[in-house]
Amino acid sequence: MCNLVLGSQSPRRKELLELAGYRFVVRSSEVEEVIEEGMTPEEAVLHLSQVKSESIELLEDEVLLTSDTVVSVDGRILGKPANFSDARSYLQQLSGRTHEVFTGVYLRTNEESCTFFVQTDVTFYDLSDNEIEWYLSTGEIWDKAGAYGIQGKGALFVEKIDGDYYSVVGLPISRVSRELRTFNVSSG
């Protein structure tokens, strides 16, 4: 049995692993998350997951899990907002539209690795300026791709979802669980 290491400070990823019954330690990286010009959303989440992983040292009996999530609309990546203006713009772009949420996962030991991404389509209702301003005031916009959290008050904007809800939260836990079994890591 291998020991699981979560390479992330994300409270959402930590909560999802705990919910699934995993025991793990947190050892996050301090790398700068840079999406290179011209990368597709799929390439971006896989690249960022791998860069995070490669910055963390592992012991012989450990399996490292790193992940990254981006929101994409019309092929443009909406990362984490830097300020209120970014967040407002992101929410305006998502209003009344379907967007894609991509979560990339990188699992590795010192000998082998596995990487994959999950895409989920999310449709927002039309948002009024008042709704956007209210949401900005909640503070939920920070540290979230696309400036919203589906697991919080941002759920009020969601008309429908096609795909893995937990991937939108930040970790496709059912797929992760299946992949971890190949590394001899189980929950419970």
TrEMBL record:
It is found in: Cytoplasm. InterPro entries: ITPase-like_fam, Maf-like. GO terms for cellular component: cytoplasm. GO terms for molecular function: dTTP diphosphatase activity; UTP diphosphatase activity. The active site is at D68 (proton acceptor). The keyword Cytoplasm applies. Its cofactor is a divalent metal cation. Keywords: Cytoplasm, Hydrolase, Nucleotide metabolism. The keyword Lyase does not apply. GO terms for biological process: nucleotide metabolic process. Its EC number is 3.6.1.9. It is an enzyme of class 3 (hydrolase). It catalyses: dTTP + H2O = dTMP + diphosphate + H(+); UTP + H2O = UMP + diphosphate + H(+). The record marks R12, T69, Q151 as: Important for substrate specificity. PANTHER family: BIFUNCTIONAL DTTP/UTP PYROPHOSPHATASE/METHYLTRANSFERASE PROTEIN-RELATED, BIFUNCTIONAL DTTP_UTP PYROPHOSPHATASE_METHYLTRANSFERASE PROTEIN-RELATED. Belongs to the Maf family. YhdE subfamily. Nucleoside triphosphate pyrophosphatase that hydrolyzes dTTP and UTP. May have a dual role in cell division arrest and in preventing the incorporation of modified nucleotides into cellular nucleic acids. NCBIfam families: maf. This is dTTP/UTP pyrophosphatase.
